[in-house]
Batch of 3 targets.
Target 1
Amino acid sequence: MEVNPQISHNFFTYFYQQVSKFLTIKKFDLNSTINKAVSHFHREYQMSAQSCYKIVVVGTSGVGKTAMVQRLVDNTFQEETQSTVGVEFKSFNITLDTETIKLNIWDTAGQERFRSVSKAYFRNAVGAILVFALNNADSFNELESWLNDLHTLAAPNAAVVLIGNKSDLVDDRAITESEAQSFADRHAMTYIETSAREGTNISEAFLRLAKSINDKVKKGEIKGQFQPPTAPAVPLSTNPDPNPKQTCKC
C-alpha cells in the first residue's frame, strides 16, 4: 500500500494528541487510543483520493518532461538532468472542487531507442501530457507521431493536453503560439504554454488534464475502475483479555 506521507504524519499527530489528552485526565487507555487513531487514519486515507487515474507524459527527448513532473511534485528545478531511461513514476493529488484526484504519473523516455519501452506504458492510460519545446521545431513536428501512438495504445477517449514547454526562452522561440494552438484545435486538445524552470502553468496543465479526465469518466466517455485501493484492515481487539497469561516469572 502506498500512503501519502502527510497522512502518515497526521496519523501519528492524532495519536500523540489522544495520548496527551488521556494522560492529562489520568484515564489513559492504550487500546482505546490506538483504535481511535487507526479509525481516524482510515477515514483520512479514504478521503485522500476519491479517484485514481493513470496518465503519461509524452514527447521527444529534451523537451522538459521530467523537469515538469519534478516541478509539479517537488516544486524543484534542476538545470542539468539526465535523459529518462525507460520510464519514471510519480504520484500527485489534485483537488477538484470537493473531490481529490490521485494522478499516477508515468514520465516516459523520448529517445527513439526507448520508444518501444515507453509505448508499453501508454496502455490503459486515461490521460496524457503531450510535450514539445517551444525552442525546438523538430519536437513540434514529431507530435503527430506521438499522438498516433497514444490514440492506438491508450484508453479510448483518453484526455490529452498539449504543452509548449520552455516559454521562458523567449529569444529562442521556434514555434508560434498560433501554430501550436492550430495543431491543438485540429486534434481537439487544450493547449498551454509552460516553463518548468520558472514554474509557469505547470500546476494548471495537470489540473486541466485531471478535470478533463474526471469529466469524461463521469459522462461515461472513459470507462474503467478508478477507485484507489482501500486502506487495509488493522485488527485490533477492543476487548482485551482481562486475565492474560503470564509468561514471565521474574
Target 2
Amino acid sequence: MVKLHGNPLSNCTRRVVCVLHEKQIDFEWVTVDYVRDAHKSSEYIAKHPFGQIPYLEDDGFIVYGNTPSPPPTRAICQYLAAKYAGQGTDLYPAPGDWEGLALLQQGISIEQSNFDPFVSKIFYEKVFKARRNIGSGHADEARVAEYLAGLESKLKAYETILSTQKYLTGDKISLGDLFHLPYATTIETLGLDQVFAKYPAFYSWIKGMQERESWKKANAGVAIDDSGVAYLKQ
C-alpha cells in the first residue's frame, strides 16, 4: 500500500498527489501538521532524517528528497512514474529508450533550473516570511524584483519552446511539465498571472496544465487566498 506522509496545503505534497492521480495509484493519506512542526518530531525524523515534507512509503520502502535542491518531490515522482509505468499516464520511458530518458531529465531540469529557483524565492519572500514571522515578516521587494527579472528572462525561452510544441519536451506530457504546477498556481495569485500572460504560449500551456483532472484532484478542498496562502475550504 502506498502511503503519502505530507500535507494538502504544501506545494511539494500536492506535486506528488498530482502524479499519484496521473498514474492512477491508490494511496493513503497520512497528514503531517507542519504548522505545529510535526515533521520535526523524533518519529518523523526516524523516517525522513531531514525533517521535510512529504515522504512516500510503498510497502515498507521509503523515498524522500531534500530541499532546496532538488526539492523532495522529484525523487518521489520519478519513483512512482518508473515503478507504475504500466498504468495511468505514460510518464517514464521504456527500458532502452535512451532518447526518452534524456528528454525526461531535460524536462525536469528545465523546471528545476529555470523556474523553481525564481518562483520558490518569490514565494519565500511574499508568503513564507510572513507566515513564519521571519525577520520583519515583510518581503524584501528589491529581491522580489530581482527574482521577477530573472524569471522573465527564462520565460522568453519557455515561449520559444512552447510556441512550436505542446509540451516542454515535445507533444507528450512529462514530469517536467507537471512539476511546474504547484508554484505556478500559488504565485499567480500574487500578481504573477499578469507576468505569465505576457508570454502567450507559456500562458496557454500553464492554463492547460491547470485544467488536468489530476491537478484538480490534488487541489480538492484547497483554496489559495490573494496573499498566496493555501487553506482548507470549509
Target 3
Amino acid sequence: MGQKINPLGFRLGITQSHHSVWFAKPNNYSESLQEDQKIRDFIKNYVQKNMGISSGAEGIARIEIQKRIDLIQVIIFMGFPKLLIERTPRGIEELQMNLEKEFHYENRKLNIAITRITKPYRNPNILAEFIAGQLKNRVSFRKAMKKAIELTEQADTKGIQVQISGRLDGKEIARVEWIREGRVPLQTIRAKIDYCSYTVRTIYGVLGIKIWIFIDTEEE
C-alpha cells in the first residue's frame, strides 16, 4: 500500500501557510484549538442559514484566525460574498455580535473581515461543494466530475485530480473513481497544490470527494 500524506501539511512553511496564527501555553493549547474549530463551525452555520441554501454550499474557501492578547481577527475568504451581503446587508455586524455573545469575549475585541476570491473555482473547497450539489440532485458522478474540470480550466490551473468514492450511482458495492486533467505533481514540495477532502450525504449513502488542484510552482 502507498503511504499517503495530506498535501497541505506536507508543504507547510514552503508553499502553504497556517490558517490559524497564535501562540499558547501547553496547558491552554487544546482549548484554543477547539475554540478555532467552534468559530469556523459557527460562521459556516450562520452563512448557510442566512444565504438560505442547503448544507455544505456556503462558498467559503477558508477561514483564517489570528489571535493576540486583546484582539481576535477572523478573515473569511469567500467565492461569492455578494450573495451574503445582498441577503443580509448588516450580516457581518450581526455575525460579530452573535460570535461575541456565544464565546463571551469581554476582554478581547473581535474583528471579522470578508475577502473575495477572484477565481472561486480555483479553490478545491468551492469546487467540492459544487460537485456535492450535483450529486445530491442525482446528476451522474462522471458528468459532475467533467463539469468541475471544465470550471477549473477556465480559472487558469495547471492540473486537477478529482476522486469520488462510495456507492456511486446507487450501486450496491462501493468503489473509487477518479479523473485527472493536466499535471498534478504530488511529490514536488515546491509545487503549489491545493487540496480538500469533503463528505456529501446522498440518498444512497455517504460519498467522499477528494480534489487536488495544481496551481503553480512559483506563485506565493
